[in-house]
Amino acid sequence: MIEVITERFIHTNILARQRVKQKTPDSLACGVVAISLGIALVLCFLLFFWIRIYILQTGYQISGARALQERFTQENDALRVERSALMTSSRIENIARNELGMITPKTKQVIVLEW
Amino acid sequence: MVKLKIRYEIIKNIRLVGILFFMLLAVIGARAYTLQIIQSEWLTQKLNDQVTKKELLSSRRGTIYDRNRVEFAFSLDVDSLYARPRLIQNKKDAAQKMCSILGISRDKILSIIQSQQSFVWVKRKITPEQSEKIKDLKISGLGFTKEAQRFYPHKELAGQLLGFVGVDSQGLEGVEREFDKQIRGTSGYLLVNRDALGRDLFPEGIKKVDSLRGYNLVLTIDKNIQYIVEKELQAAVTAARARSGLAVVIDPRTGEILASAVAPAFNPNQGSAPGDIWKNRAITDVFEPGSTFKPFVVGSALEEGVVKPEDIYDCENGSYHMGGKIIHDAHPHGLLSVTEVIKYSSNIGASKIAQHLGRERFYNYICKFGFSRETGIELPGEVSGYIPHASQWREINLGTISFGQGVSVTALQMASAYSAIANGGLLMRPYLVKKIQEENGTVIQEAAPTIIRRVISDQSARLLREMLKTVTEDGGTGQKACVEGFEVAGKTGTAQKIAANGKGYSDKCVSSFVGFIPAQDPKLTIVVVIDEPKGVTYGGVVAAPAFSKMAQQILCYQRIYPESSLQRINPDPGWRETKDLAPGKGTKG
C-alpha cells in the first residue's frame, strides 16, 4: 500500500515538474509584468502622496503669506493713520505759528511777480 | 480512519473560521455601507464643519476724499474680541485681567462671559494695542475677528458734513448715509481647511469669493478752506458767547460747496453723540434771515423795473405804519435812495419797495431764488424752509418778509441765492460730491455745475452787486466784513427769534452776514450765521468780522490777490538782477 502511494506521489511530482518546466517562459513574463505593475502602482502612490504633501506645503506657504500680508496691511494702516494725523491742518498751523513763527500775510505783504 | 477523522476536524475548523471571517466581513461591510452610503452626507458635513472654515472677507468702505484727494474718511481692519463662555476656565480671573486693558468694568466683563450663550461679543473694534495685550494673556475661550473700523483722521473737521457709521459700518448720517450704497461694498469669503494644529490649508485649492470694495467719493470740500472756516466760526461763536454758529462757503460760479461748518463741532470718530451736535444744521435747521433777505426784494424790484438804484424812498425817520402795525428801523433815516436802503439796512425802505413790487411778484421771485424748496444737495435731512404763500400774506407780512421776518430759510439756501446775485443771475444747484470713483481711479459718476434757472438778468445782478458793495463801505452796516485790497459785496442781518411759546419774538436773535468776494468777479460766497450772541448782537459786529477773516485767509490760500499786489518784471534771463519792477494788471498770482 505504501509503495503504491509512494509511486503515485513520485509520479504526481514528476508530472508537476514537467508542467512547471513546460510553463516557465510564460510565468516569467507574468512575474515581470506583475512586478512592473507593482512598481508602477507604488510609484503612482508615491507620486500621489508627493503631490498631496506638496499641496499641503503650498497651503502652509499660502497661509504664511496671508499672515504676512495681514501684518503688512496692519502696518500700512497704522502708517496711514499716522500720516493723516500728521497732515491735520490744526497741527500744521500750530507748528507754523508757534514753532516757526509764521503768520498769515496781509494783502499788502504779498507781491505777486509775473514775467 | 483516524486520519480521515482528523482531516474532517481540520476541514470543519477551517469552515468555522471561514464563517467567522465571513460574518466579520459582513459586519465590516454593513458598517462600511452605513458609513459610506447611509451616513455619508451627514459625516461629510460634520467633517467640513470641523475642518473647513468660511473666513469672511469683509468689504472695505470706500474712502472719502476732499477735492485735493486728502483723506477725510477711510476704513481700517481692526480686531473685535469675542468669547465662547463655556471654554473659559476661570471666568473671574479672566475678567480681572481684561478689565484694565479694555477699559470696561470687571463686573460688566464677568456678566458677559458668564452668559449661557455659546458666543458673545466682549468688545468690538478694539485698538491694536488692546488686541496684542489680550492675546498675550492666552485665555482659552477668547477669540478675535477682523472688522472694518471707520476712521476720520481730521477728527472734528467737517464732522457734521461727513456724518458717521454704525457698529456694522452702515452709514447713519451725512455723506456716509446718503452714499451708503455706493461706498459700502460687498463682503466675500474664503474657504480654508484647518489641520490639527489649527493651521490653514488649501487642499482643494483656493476657493474664494472676493469682497468688493466700495467706491471712493471725492467731495467738493477743500480741507484747508474747511479748516479756516471752522476755526474762524468757532472763534466768532466764542467771542460772541453764542449758542452756536453756521458757515457755508460756495463757489458761486459752479455751485460747488467748498466748506460747510457747524459750531460746536462734532467728532465722527465717536459715532453718535448725545443731543443734536451731529446734525448738519446748515441744511437741517432754519432761521429767520432778517436783513440779509432785503437784497431779494430789491433785486426783484430791479428786475421788474419797479425801482432804480437812485430812486428815493422816505424812511419816515424810523417809524412807519403798515397794515395796522408799526415798522421800525434800528437807526432813523429820512430820505434814502434804494442803494442806501441796502447800505443802511432800512426796514421801512425795504417794506416800501415790497409794496411797490406787490406780493405776488415778490413771492414769485423769492421762489425763483430757491427759497421754500430743498436745494437738492446730496445730504439727508435737508429741509425746505418756510415761505407762506402770497395769498396768505397780510399787509404787514409784505413788509416783514421784505426784511426777512416771518420766513425761514437754511444757510445753504442763502448761500445759493446770494451766489445767483454774484454770478450774474443764475441759480446754480449746490453740490457736494464731485466724483464717485473706483479704487483704481475709474470714474463711475462725475458731477458738473448745473444751472437751475435764471432768476434775474445779468444787468439787475450787476446793479445789485454794486448796491451790496456799499454795505461794506464807510457808513455801511457791514464795514467789518472788509478785506484789505478787495471789494466785498454783502449784507448784514440781525433777526429776532420767535419766542419759545410761539407767540411773538423773544429778545434772542440770529446775527448773520452773507456776502461774496471779490465783488467785481466773485469767487466765493460766504454765509456766516451766529445763533443767540450775547452783548452786541448786530450781524455787522458779530458775523461780519468772521466773514472778513475767513475770506482773507481763503483768498490767500487760493492765491487770489488784489491787482495792487501784482508786479510785472522783465522776462529777461538775468531777471534776478532786475530791480525795476513795473506794475501790471491781473488778479492772480
Describe it:
Chain A is mainly alpha-helical. Chain A has one domain (2-109). In chain A, 83% of the residues lie in helices and 3% in strands. Chain A contains two helices and one strand. Chain A has helices at 2-86, 89-99; one strand at 112-114. Chain A is rod-shaped and about 140 Å long. Chain B is α+β, with helices and mostly antiparallel strands and 589 residues long. Chain B has two domains: 57-219, Penicillin-binding protein 2a (Domain 2); 223-558, DD-peptidase/beta-lactamase superfamily (Beta-lactamase, 3-Layer(aba) Sandwich), CATH 3.40.710.10. In chain B, the strands form seven sheets. In chain B, strands 2, 3, 4, 5, 9, 17 and 18 form a seven-stranded mixed sheet that branches. In chain B, helix 3 (91-102) runs antiparallel to helix 5 and helix 9 (223-239) packs antiparallel against helix 19. The longest helix of chain B is centred in the first third of the chain and has 37 residues, at 2-38. Classes of the chains: A mainly alpha (115), B alpha+beta (589). At the A-B interface, helix 1, helix 2 and strand 1 of A face strand 3, strand 7, helix 9, helix 19 and strand 23 of B.
Instruction: Indicate the multimeric state.
Output: heterodimer
CATH topology (fold) name of the largest domain in chain B: Beta-lactamase
- Radius of gyration of chain A using CA atoms only: 45 Å
Mean pLDDT across all amino acids of chain A: 82
The largest sheet of chain B, given as strand count, sense and whether it forms a barrel, is: 7 strands, mixed
Class from helix and strand fractions of chain A: mainly alpha
Give the termini separation of chain B.
131 Å
Number of helices of chain A: 2
Give the count of structural domains of chain A.
1
Give the % helix of chain B.
25-40%
Number of strands of chain A: 1
Shape of chain B: elongated
Low-confidence stretches of chain B: 578-589
Shape category of chain A: rod-shaped
The helix count of chain B comes to 19
Secondary-structure content class of chain B: alpha+beta
Order of helices and strands of chain A: HHE
**What gyration radius of chain B follows from the Cα positions, in whole Å?**
36 Å
Beta fraction of the residues of chain B? Answer: 15-25%
How confident overall, as mean pLDDT of chain B? 88
What is the beta-strand fraction of chain A? under 5%
